[in-house]
């Protein structure tokens, strides 16, 4: 019977091959399977330049690094000084490693990882001199490169942002935790299992490639553990309307009385609505229903080629405005409240500006969650939207009629490689393990396509030309302006958002013409929003100071609150939702088509 690997305490016996013959057989099997994987990869879109592909990003990173190196070389004295300091640090680390290998256990580390850096959580990263050497060398080199880049002259704002992004990609990729011979957990597993982990890992990679679309989808969770409608998106309700681009869901009340003014939730069309309705304990939709609101949610279609020409104004008219009309007919109310998340909020804001310009008073209030309406500070996503990339992307969408969801998912993952890429490479392909079941990551991998016309308009008009913020956007023959939106607005930014940066959300809030309650939540684009009160994981900040200051000034005067922002929002929305009325059953007036969550959300990309 095979012995388990020794405890990671620096004991070299944990790194001993138990059966050399089996080890050799497994290595040969791994190499054989690796050849098939490589052959398949070379035939895939991943290996070829194209919008948001891995190959294109490698090319762009190479260009950026060469440009930065040229700037460094233009000041040889400064570069020589920096290199001398780096080599001096290497010498200290090497000397410390030698002392430890000779038995000196009192050597203090020259550098240590930041708190919470899970890449180096295994004890042998510190207790084994070999792995400690690789760890400290990497940390020193990455810090040296970041500092040298920060002091580099001759880069404009966009060039510096691009350089910081690509350096972050390279630094994340070069971590010793990503390589089989410099990761103690992988080495121990390889020796103790006689390399069976590498065989399993290559099989995992092969299966990921088989199930992927255009680009490789690295499994982030156990996809068999979840099913929409079974253990995700289970809040009771009915589909009360549908057309080509959306189903409208009305949720069953859980209180005998509800607020008079119903709530329409407009989620992003670039992913699926059930991020707001994961498990019952994490469901924002269930929470809103339990607070006594009549909740309607748009579930966008997963479009195919037949919907290629559905554009942004179609999503406004056939989506938001049609949903608003159906809700008013179903409930008998003249006005509704709106809530938009991410690009769903951008669509809702554009719709509100359109209605205001036309003098149509349909919405009583609006809530924006991590929503950008001004894109001057839109973060790293701006790096993927220049004329050349847009032209290439539009050519691809014109050929297919849509953008494959894997490309946008790839972009979002690359923005946080240390968290969303490399841990799964190590777990799946080096350790040969299956990923842990996690509902949020299941949703993250359940990507959706985007119609060509709509996505083209969104990227060019909002991100590239920022026309909504400038008051230059024309929708259905109507020029719209954000300052015409004078209804009360609850505007949520999240502190660590890498998709809709808090600064960008804050700038957009200042463009609205009515009273704005700006709130800043802890964490990022997803966890900062999906933050149920029972978890008490993150905090939020509020302030009575106006939003005509900078975000830093606003934060300096803000009050920090422990826990979720959901109850605070409930109090705000209640003030704008009228009196209590008897609870409404879904489809009581217009009828029901099918049970929530409906069929549109179940269509896989």
UniProtKB/TrEMBL annotation:
<dbReference type="Pfam" id="PF07167">
    <property type="entry name" value="PhaC_N"/>
</dbReference>
<keyword id="KW-0963">Cytoplasm</keyword>
<dbReference type="InterPro" id="IPR051321">
    <property type="entry name" value="PHA/PHB_synthase"/>
</dbReference>
<dbReference type="InterPro" id="IPR010963">
    <property type="entry name" value="PHA_synth_I"/>
</dbReference>
<protein>
    <submittedName>
        <fullName>Poly-beta-hydroxybutyrate polymerase</fullName>
        <ecNumber>2.3.1.-</ecNumber>
    </submittedName>
</protein>
<dbReference type="GO" id="GO:0016746">
    <property type="term" value="F:acyltransferase activity"/>
</dbReference>
<keyword id="KW-0808">Transferase</keyword>
<keyword id="KW-0012">Acyltransferase</keyword>
<dbReference type="InterPro" id="IPR010941">
    <property type="entry name" value="PhaC_N"/>
</dbReference>
<dbReference type="InterPro" id="IPR029058">
    <property type="entry name" value="AB_hydrolase_fold"/>
</dbReference>
<dbReference type="GO" id="GO:0042619">
    <property type="term" value="P:poly-hydroxybutyrate biosynthetic process"/>
</dbReference>
<dbReference type="GO" id="GO:0005737">
    <property type="term" value="C:cytoplasm"/>
</dbReference>
<feature type="domain" description="Poly-beta-hydroxybutyrate polymerase N-terminal">
    <location>
        <begin position="117"/>
        <end position="288"/>
    </location>
</feature>
């Amino acid at each position: 019977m095979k012995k388990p690997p020794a405890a990671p305490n620096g004991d070299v016996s944990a790194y001993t091959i138990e059966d050399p013959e089996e080890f050799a057989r497994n290595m040969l099997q791994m190499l054989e399977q690796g050849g098939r994987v490589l052959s398949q990869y070379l035939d895939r879109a991943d290996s070829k330049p194209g919008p948001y592909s891995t190959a294109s990003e490698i090319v762009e990173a190479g260009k950026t690094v060469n440009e930065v190196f040229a700037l460094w070389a233009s000041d040889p004295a400064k570069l020589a000084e920096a290199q001398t300091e780096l080599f001096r640090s290497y010498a200290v680390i090497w000397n410390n490693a030698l002392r430890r290998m000779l038995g000196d256990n009192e050597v203090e580390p020259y550098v240590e990882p930041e708190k919470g850096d899970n890449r180096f959580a295994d004890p042998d990263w510190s207790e084994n001199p070999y792995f400690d050497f690789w760890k400290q060398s990497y940390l020193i080199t990455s810090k040296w490169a970041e500092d040298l880049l920060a002091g580099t002259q001759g880069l404009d704002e966009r060039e510096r942002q691009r350089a910081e992004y690509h350096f972050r990609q390279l630094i994340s990729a070069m971590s010793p935790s990503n390589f089989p011979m410099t990761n103690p957990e992988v080495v121990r597993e390889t020796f103790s299992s006689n390399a069976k982990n590498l065989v399993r890992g290559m099989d995992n990679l092969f299966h990921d490639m088989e199930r992927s679309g255009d680009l490789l989808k690295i499994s982030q969770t156990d996809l068999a553990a979840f099913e929409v409608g079974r253990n995700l998106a289970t809040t009771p309700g009915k589909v009360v309307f549908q057309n080509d681009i959306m189903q409208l869901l009305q949720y069953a009340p859980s209180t005998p009385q509800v607020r008079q003014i119903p709530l329409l939730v407009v989620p992003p069309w670039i992913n699926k609505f059930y991020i707001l309705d994961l498990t019952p304990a994490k469901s924002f939709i269930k929470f809103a229903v339990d607070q006594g609101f009549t909740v309607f949610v748009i579930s966008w279609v997963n479009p195919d080629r037949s919907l290629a020409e559905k554009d942004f104004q179609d999503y406004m008219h056939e989506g938001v405005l049609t949903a608003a009309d159906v809700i008013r007919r179903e409930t008998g109310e003249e006005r509704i409240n709106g809530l938009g998340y991410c690009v769903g909020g951008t669509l809702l804001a554009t719709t509100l500006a359109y209605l205001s310009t036309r003098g149509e008073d349909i919405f009583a209030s609006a809530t924006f969650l991590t929503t950008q309406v001004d894109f001057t500070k839109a973060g790293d996503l701006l790096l993927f939207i220049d004329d050349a990339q847009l032209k290439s992307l539009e050519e691809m969408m014109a050929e297919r009629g849509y953008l494959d969801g894997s490309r946008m998912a790839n972009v979002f993952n690359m923005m946080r490689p240390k968290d969303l890429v490399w841990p799964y490479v190590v777990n799946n392909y080096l350790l040969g393990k299956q990923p842990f079941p996690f509902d949020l990551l299941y949703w993250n991998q359940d990507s959706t396509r985007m119609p060509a016309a709509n996505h083209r308009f969104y990227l060019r008009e909002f991100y590239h030309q920022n026309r909504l913020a400038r008051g230059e956007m024309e929708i259905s023959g109507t020029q719209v302006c954000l300052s015409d939106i004078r209804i009360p607005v609850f505007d949520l930014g999240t502190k660590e958002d890498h998709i809709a940066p808090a600064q960008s959300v804050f700038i957009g809030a200042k463009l609205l013409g009515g009273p704005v309650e700006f709130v800043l939540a802890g964490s990022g684009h997803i966890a900062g929003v999906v933050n149920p009160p029972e978890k008490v994981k993150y905090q939020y900040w509020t302030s009575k100071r106006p939003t005509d200051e900078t975000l830093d000034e606003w934060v300096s005067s803000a009050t920090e609150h422990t826990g979720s922002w959901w109850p605070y929002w409930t109090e705000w929305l209640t003030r704008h939702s009228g009196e209590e009325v008897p609870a409404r059953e879904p489809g009581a007036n217009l009828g029901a088509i099918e049970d929530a969550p409906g069929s549109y959300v179940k269509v896989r990309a």
